[in-house]
Design a protein that fits this description.
Chitinase A, domain 3; 7-stranded antiparallel sheet; PPIase_dom_sf; EC 5.2.1.8
């Protein structure tokens, strides 16, 4: 009889992967007759990796836009820019300012597709992706007035909630 399958959270999977990578590295070192790395060597390698990471993620300063909207680019894309009326496909994660996620679509096979300027999504999201280029990733902080306002959204989003969307732009199509 097989043991039950346990679902791990993303955080737990990352932690387990790090642990397994460490065990593997130690086993390889031991197998090749090398001494395991000292904490100092590990720290040096980590700082080099962190430097590389910083260079690959050009996080920009937060920009304040009309209506209290805030945007910060994590990755600046190099494809077509978003224009009103052109169909866009995005992956996103919507969270409250405390980090609790209320909605997400990370499925590349079925991204959220809509035309900015048509009211298909909340105004803050439409305005927040303006000028974004394909391949880009952006954090958009949406004040209640450009989100769901005083009404909220059912039991999911309370009234007057500030929302934080992390958006990845996959495609900008034609009209």
């Amino acid at each position: 009889e097989e043991p039950p399958v346990v679902k791990l959270s993303k955080k737990e999977r990352k932690k387990l992967a790090k642990q397994k990578a460490k065990e593997l590295a130690e086993a390889v070192d031991k197998n090749q007759g090398r001494e395991p790395k000292t904490e100092e060597e590990k720290a040096s390698e980590k700082s080099k990796k962190d430097e590389k990471k910083k260079k690959s993620l050009p996080i920009t300063r937060e920009r304040r836009m009309a209506g209290g909207l805030k945007v910060r680019d994590i990755i600046i894309g190099d494809g077509l820019p978003v224009k009103s009326g052109r169909k866009v496909s995005i992956l996103y994660e919507g969270a409250f300012t405390n980090g609790d996620v209320f909605d997400r679509n990370q499925n590349k096979g079925n991204p959220l597709t809509f035309r900015p300027g048509t009211g298909a999504v909340i105004r803050g999201l439409e305005k927040g992706i303006e000028g974004m280029k394909v391949g880009g990733e952006r954090i958009i902080t949406i004040p209640p007035a450009l989100g769901y306002g005083k009404k909220g959204q059912g039991h999911t989003i309370p009234s007057n909630s500030t929302l934080v969307f992390t958006v990845q732009l996959l495609d900008v199509g034609g009209r």
